[in-house]
Amino acid sequence: MGRFNGKSVIVTGSSNGIGAATALQFAKEGAQVTITGRKVENLEKLHGEMVKSGTPASNIHIVVGDITNVDVQKKIIEETVSKFGKLDILVNNAGAAFGDDKYQGTSSPDSMNLLEKNLDLNLKSVMNITNIAKPHLIATKGEVVNISSIASLNFGALWHSYYCIAKAALDQLTRAQALELIAQEVRVNSVKYESNL
């Protein structure tokens, strides 16, 4: 019997990398998993790997779309709850670093657009999808795991200033959400992976 038997889990940005590995591990441990991303072929490949590892196809749900789109965020939550009956764990993994191709950092003439792009994906989408999921997580006394990065720490990452800013803000959002939701017995944590920037 797996550690997550009977648990309903969403892993955003699960079409490759950390997200795919996380979704696969949850499935191996018995969870019902919604996998999300923009590339349907990657999600279908992951679906195949999950089934091959012993996960029943009925325990896997695919939602294709851009996580920065509010309608996609709603679809992920609504379809998960409709298919699995509840939501226990939300893993906010979707993220990326956007910079300019001339390595100008914050001096780039496109700096405000690049900052906004990084904030939209790495911060705003996390805050919004968590708010949409909140009533369902309160109902199950669930958990939120925000995937951050060591790029949020005080040494930063050269030429990736916007990403560092967004991930540092995500760390503060995680602390705020943890304080706000603990009274409803919903845990909010983050994991910092070692960036390969």
TrEMBL record:
Highest taxon above the source species: Eukaryota
GO molecular function, a single term: oxidoreductase activity
Keywords assigned by UniProt, alphabetized: Oxidoreductase
Matching InterPro entries: NAD(P)-bd_dom_sf (IPR036291), Sc_DH/Rdtase_CS (IPR020904), SDR_fam (IPR002347)
Listed Pfam families: adh_short
Family affiliation: Belongs to the short-chain dehydrogenases/reductases (SDR) family.
PANTHER family referenced in this protein's UniProt entry, alphabetically: NAD(P)-BINDING PROTEIN, PROTEIN CBG09704
Name by which UniProt lists this protein: Uncharacterized protein
Biological source species: Diploscapter pachys
Higher taxonomy: Eukaryota, Metazoa, Ecdysozoa, Nematoda, Chromadorea
